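Posting this for the archive.
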Amino acid sequence: MKWAKEHDTGGESKSSKSESAEIFMNHDEIVEVLTEKLGDCPEEVLQQVAEKLMKPLQQTYQTTLHSVFLTISKTPDSTTHTKQSRKVQLKQAEEELMMMWNKARLYFDGVQLFEADDNIKSNLEKYLIKSVGLDVANKIFLLNTTDNMTDIDTSVQLTGEMRIKIISLSPDNIKQHLTKLNSSINGKSFDMLMECVKAATTACGIMLRQNDKKKDRLVIHGNRKSLLEQMDKESGNPAMVLHLASSIIFQSVFGCMLHAPGRHVPDVLDKLESSLERDVYSTLMKSQDLIQQKMILEQKDEHEVDEVRVEELNCEMQEVSNQIRELAVTTKKKK
């Protein structure tokens, strides 16, 4: 079988010539092949068949040729570019890890203020481990993924199975530290988690630096700003406003960030009581009471719900919620 010869196209690149100017087989060449295979077929029919085959054959050839060029493009130069991109991604991931780790430290300062009640402190500590702590651990695991870990989808939240898979594919000197880190996520001690984080990052060659007090203050200020912005976005949701406002006021009063689930808002308010002016605390408690009343009504069967009372509660809740948004901005520790 003859192949069409390349023609000089001047300034065109080699890949451009191959993909656009290269012809797989011309009409006469196709007729020649058909004649060899179907010798007893009339020439007029062979001519028509060749005409019909030219376009699909050329399209198939172009697709195959393009695939070859893509494969070639992945060798040395492309590999170098991929390595450079990975270095940039790793650098960004390390910076993100640093921010997450320092925020986790500062959140734990807030948890420790509940040491008078072991049960509440334990629940808040476990919540911190399962949320922010898990994010920190997953970031470390992602930083230890390599190109040969093709079964790991790094674009999604890591699961326990995925972390175990990464551990199994990691070098022995790193494997034991990742194993301990993975176990600490299911533990109850935030201090233990942080020790495992430090050990794992050291073993993996990741520089983990603790912020100085000035940077900590910036993080705390940024957290307050973020909570205020989120509260404004949730202005139509009184329960969420109370949740966010309690965290903002807690930070303003005690100087510590707090990461607590909604179910612990009553505990946060109890902690704040002695540090707030009476009218501020009363407004917060009024909001909590209205929210609880609404929840009780919603648990009733549909035919038992007093729609008038529901509407009254909604209006009261929104009115108090607007007051709380203002208090979140202005409230400070009682003198």
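The CA atoms of residues 297 and 305 lie 6 Å apart. Confidence is low (pLDDT under 50) at residues 1-21.
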